[in-house]
Amino acid sequence: MFQARCTSCGYIETDYDEFGGFSEPEGAVEFVTEVRAWHRSDDWPPSELLCVACQKCAVCGADPCYPHDDGQHVVCEQHEDHDFDKPARPQLRSVPS
Ligand SMILES: [Zn+2]
Ligand SMILES: [Zn+2]
Question: pTM above 0.70?
Answer without folding.
Answer: no
